[in-house]
Structure formats: C-alpha cells, structure tokens
What we know:
Elements: H1 4-7, E1 24-33, E2 41-45, E3 51-52, H2 56-66, E4 77-83, E5 87-88, E6 91-92, E7 95-101, E8 108-115, E9 118-126, H3 139-147, H4 152-160, H5 168-182, H6 187-198, H7 202-214, H8 221-235
Parallel strand pairs: 7-9
Antiparallel strand pairs: 1-2, 1-4, 2-3, 4-7, 5-6, 8-9
Helix pairs in contact: 3-5, 6-7, 6-8, 7-8
Amino acid sequence: MDMSSVIVAKSDQWNADDFAGGARTFTIEDVSIKPGTEQPVSIKLAGSDKVFRPCKTVSRILVAAWGADANAYRGRSIELYTDPGVTWGGMKVGGTRVSRMSDIAAPLVIALQEKKGSRKMTTVQPLKVVAPASDEPTIEGAEHAIRTAETPDELKTIWLHKNMRPFRDKLQTIMEQRKAELTPANTDTADTVAMFDTATTPEAIEAADKAANVLNIAADPAIVEARESAWTRGTGQ
C-alpha cells in the first residue's frame, strides 16, 4: 500500500508552502461554508483555480475585521503569507496567515490564541487596493472632471468632450453650479446695488437707476430688488 498519496499537500487549495517566495494579494470572489467538516470555510480567489481554506485563527481575523457575514467578503482583498512561527503538536511547522486586508480604516490589533493558555498579539495592516484603469467613461469620472475644473475655459472643454455626451442630462445642474463658482462676481452690479441701498432721496435713487441703465444691468434681479427696496424706503411705504 502506497502512502505517498496521503502526504502530498492538497493541490486544490493554497498552502503555506505556496507563499515561500513572498506574500501574495488576492481578491475574494466567493465564500462557502460547510459546518462540521475539518476545513469548513472555502474562499474562492480571483484568478486562481485553488481555494483558500483558512484555519480558525485566520477565520477569527476575518470576522474581527469584516464581520460575520461572509457574503460581504466578496470583492474585498487580502494579502496572504507564510508565518514560519506557526506551531502544531508542539513543533514549528509554518502556516498561512493574513498580513493586510482591504476595507479596514486602521491597523487591526487582535489577541489570538497561540497555544493553550497563551495569546499572541497580531496586527493586520490596511491594504490599499488600486482599481484598474478603465477606458470606458463613467458618470463618476465625468462628475469628478466637472468639479475639479479650474477655469471657465477648462470647464467648457470638459463639457463639450464626446465622453460627456451620455451624462449631460444628469450632470447639467452640477455643471451650472461649477460654472457659477468659476465665474467672477460682477462688481458693477454689486456697486450699483450699494448705491440703491444707501440712497435716501429720490434724486439719489434716480442717480443709481441711471447708473444701472448705463451699465446695461437694469434688468438684473439684484438691481430690480434693490431699486424696489430703495423706492419703498424713500416713499415710506
């Protein structure tokens, strides 16, 4: 009877020996749980035919970082490495551990049982995942371009670009807001409104009105309101 088949590491799963060359980062595609089995958790990793079956220690880290709902793990990323200090049966045999995880705002420090009666502090660092660049325009990218435009001319160029065409209806309001932010205030209007605000006689009001007409801003809503307020004060009505 040949015993060699039972000592070969399982080829359908990631083992500590697979990370002898260094840590590797994976994105989780799916998680399945079969309670009552020796290795109840199987994590499918993007781009790999092999699954990752975490031990209880690693499973506790996952729950501490991401919560107990395994469905939430999909799309998140982990960095796996070999910890040569992991013991089994009193011997150092090495084991797969997690060094970094996405979707945590700060380092996670957790006390994990190293052996019966003792615990070891373990730290998992945040993993920053950079999304791959996409050639397809998105509404998020279009909105960001509008909000970060620095001049009216730059905003106009962005707005007229062909990639903006699918999003113009939805982003019209945001574009108008940014345009208003980039447009310098009309000092003529402000100065003329001030003339109306300080006018205390009909002659002064008429002088402000004449200035508005000369500057071609008499129909400006701010001028109209200031004129009406001035005449109301002047007539006592």
